[in-house]
Amino acid sequence: MFPPGFLWGAATSAYQVEGGNKNDWSRWPKGDAGKAAGHYERFKEDFDLAKSLSHNAHRFSIEWSRIEPEEGKFNESELNHYREVILALKENGLEPFVTLWHFTLPVWFVEKGGWLNRNSAVYFERYVAKVVETYRHLGVKFWITLNEPDYIYAFEAYSRGRFPPQQKSFLKTIRVLKNLIKTHKKAYKIIHQHDPNSQVGFANNVIYFEAYGGKFMNRILKFLANRYWNFWFFRKTMPCHDFIGCNYYYHNRIKFNWLHPAKSFNRNDNCDVSDIGFEIYPEGIYHVLKNLKKYNLPIYILENGIADAKDEKREKFIKDHLYWIYKAIQKGVDVRGYFYWSLIDNFEWDKGFGPRFGLVEIDYKTMERKIRPSALEYRKIIENRSV
Ligand code: BGC
Predict the structure, then answer these.
(1) Would the CB of 156 count as within 6 Å of ligand 1?
(2) 148 C-beta closer than 6 A to ligand 1
(3) Among 146, 273, 341, which is best to mutate for testing ligand 1, by the most ligand atoms less than 8 A from CB?
(4) 210 CB under 6 A from ligand 1?
(5) What is the pTM of this model?
(6) Which residue from 147, 187, 288, 346 lies 20 to 30 Å from 215 (Cα-Cα)?
(7) Is 90 exceeded by the pLDDT of residue 373?
(8) How far is the C-alpha of 259 from the C-alpha of 352, rounded, in Å?
C-alpha cells in the first residue's frame, strides 16, 4: 500500500487549459490556444470532477500575464480569480500545488528581452512577491517556481527554436539558463520570506538514460547525459529546494555512434508508443527515483502522462508507472505524491490540440467534459492506495 497521506491528483497549466490569455504564445500564430478548454470559466466544474475521481491534490499554474498585464501594474480582478481557484480547490479537499511560471510570458516582459534580460529575475521576483503575499493566508503550502526551465524551455525556445521566440543560439541559451537559475533562487527566498513554512521547488524534466549494452563509450555518455539533463539545474540552484519535483515522460537509450555522435541518443526500441510517439517505459521512473534518493528530500511526481485519444493505453500506463513508483518507495525513496498529466485535455504547445492527455475528455465544440474510463481505474488505485 502507498503510505497514508500520499497525495494523488492531476496537473494542468494555465495557458494549456484556461483560454483567453494574451501573452507571447497567443501572439505566435502557431501557438494561439484561443478558448483552450474553457477552464478559466469552468474551473469549479473541473475541480468537482477531480474530487469525484477521489483526487486529494491538484497542480495548476498562475498566468503571469494575467496578474501583471502591464509592467508593475497588478490586476486585482485576476488576483481575485486565482483566489477563487484556490478556494475552490480547498473546498473540494484538493491540496493546491501552485506553479508560478509554466512557459508563457507577459508581452511587456518579452519586449524587454524576456529571460535574456539581465534583470529578468527581479521582474519575476516582484510578481512572485505579489502572488505569495496575496494567497499565503489561504493556506497554500506548495509552490513550484518554474516548470522545466532548462532542457525543455531554454532549449526549445533558444536552441531548437520550436517555442517562441524561436531562436537558435547557444550563447543565448546559456544566458537564459543563467537568468533562470537566478530566478529560481530569488523566488525561493522571497516565498520563504513571506511564509517560512512553505515548501518550494521547481518541476524538473527527468529522463531515464540507459546505456545500450555495457560498452565503455555508452556508459560514459549515459553518465554525462544523466548528470547534465537530470541534475545540472538542480545542483546549480542548491540549496534552494524543499522538495524535488519530477516530470517523467521519457526513456533514452544510448548507443554511441562514432560517425554521427549526435545520433547516439534515443536508440529506443519504441515497441510501445503514445499517440505522439513517446516511448512508454514505466520502469524508467524507478531508476530515476532511486537516483534522486541521495538528496534526502521529499519527491513529488509533478507530471507523468500519455497522449492517448482512444484511451486504450492510459489505464495500463498509470498502473505500471505507479507500480514502479511503489517499488521505489519500498526501496526507501521518499515519494509523497503523484500528479497525472493532465486532468483535462489541453493545448499541447507546438503540437496544438491533437494530442489528448486528459483523464477527462474535452469536446472543443461544446466544451462538454467526459470522464475517460482510465480515470475511473486511477480512482480505484487511489481508493485502495494500491495498484
Ligand atoms: C510540459 C507540459 C506538456 C507535457 C506533455 C511537459 O513537458 O510541462 O506542459 O503538456 O510535457 O508534452
Answers:
(1) no
(2) yes
(3) 341
(4) no
(5) 0.98
(6) 288
(7) yes
(8) 35
